[in-house]
Amino acid sequence: MVNISMQNWQPYVQAGWELVSEAQGVSKTYLQPDVEAFLVHTIARTFERTDIWDEPIAIKLLTAQNKPGLTKRIDLRSVGEECLLIDAWQLKHAKWPNAKYFADMGEIAFGMASIATTPVDVLLELASINFGRMSQVLRHARDLANR
Questions:
Q1: Is this model's pTM higher than 0.85 or not?
Q2: Which tens digit of pLDDT belongs to each residue from 54-79?
Q3: What span, in angstroms and rounded, lies between the C-alpha atoms of 137 and 21?
């Protein structure tokens, strides 16, 4: 889960923006401003997460789906973010069920999160639609960090 005790988000947002900006330039994959901002904030929100893929993603998705309203949206967004990080950075790649599993689950999680409350969360819908592009940018960010 997200560490809600983080007091100072600025360094995380700044680091996320720098990573995303540089990775977009290198990859020539440019995100819409809202999608870029979402990705930057995803990096900031997940910077200190230690629970990435600590249990099966399908279980997390089903558990989140059974929660009410806003809690459901937040938890589904968290699952989508987790899938984005796993897919982009190919975490534990040898254990993946198949090559598209985390991309598919992430798109589904963001899509479900977008309709979990009324009105529909357009930004989460954009995250679902642009999952592949965000993953591509993050993959390049990983490559830049490994230089």
A1: yes
A2: 999 999 999 999 999 899 999 999 99
A3: 9
